[in-house]
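Q&A log
Question type: sequence-to-structure
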Amino acid sequence: LDLAYYPPNAPISARPDWRVAGRKAGSTLADLQSQALDTFGISRGILNCLYGGPAMYSADLSAAICRATNAWVAAEWLDKDDRLRASIVIPVQNTELAVDEIERWAPDRRFVQILVLGAHESLLGHREHWPIYRAAEKHGLPIAIHAGSAMRHAPTANGWPSTLYEEHCSFALTFQSQLLSLIAEGVFTKFPALRVVLLESGISWLPSFFWRGTKMWRGMRKEIPWVDASPAAIVRDRVRFSLQTWDLPQDPTQLDQLIEQIDADDIFLFSTDYPHWRFDGDDPTRGLPPALLSKALRETPLATYPRLKETV
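Response status: OK
Response body:
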């Protein structure tokens, strides 16, 4: 049931120094504590369990696996380290069951967001998903969209790719389509308190998304009169992005230019993508501007996740 994007023996799936013979990397609390929480000095860490429950074709099976996953995370991880928080995984393909799962775990304040895959059976802006957003807004839980797919549709408009490399490169297209759907369908207008977090989306595509989305909105806004602000303004106000996995330029000057074009330094969240191999050493934030990093480490997470304020 593991999603196939990170085969256990693939180099990208785990850093060599995080691999332990006889078990998957990061699969025990002791490994997580020594390799991530302690090493990076993390006072609060949000667990995002990508077990394959949300990808099941059977809604009932998906709901059962999601419920079991959430219960396992609570009992085996959250109960054993006060630094840990988690995301609620839900069966997106059935709205009623998804809302039931949110209501089941929302009273546990250690669950701080709702986790969905980047690609499923339909675009996330469609109204069939709105009860999920209503429940999320009611409980003050952001919707986190994580790179990955339930494999219902090809990741490109021209069909299925042949390699894992192509799949990973296409994630940026998936995030753009979902973000545009949420904007155009009016989700941010209908649910004014809802926050969305993009996990492992990268950011290099944001300037062109802002430019094209805003240009087309100005010319075609009569079709979507409920969108009363530019896509760029909506994203800067309501959407947040994890630091990993960033598609950062190596040249610091180019990085400064990219951040300047995005025109926001308070939309980024510290993350490690542990145990995946995204960086070497003990600094997952190497090369980031100090002002941006300062906000990503504390101010922006606390503003994005209201429940973190209860314990920090």
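Response note: Residues 30 and 36 are 10 Å apart (CA to CA).
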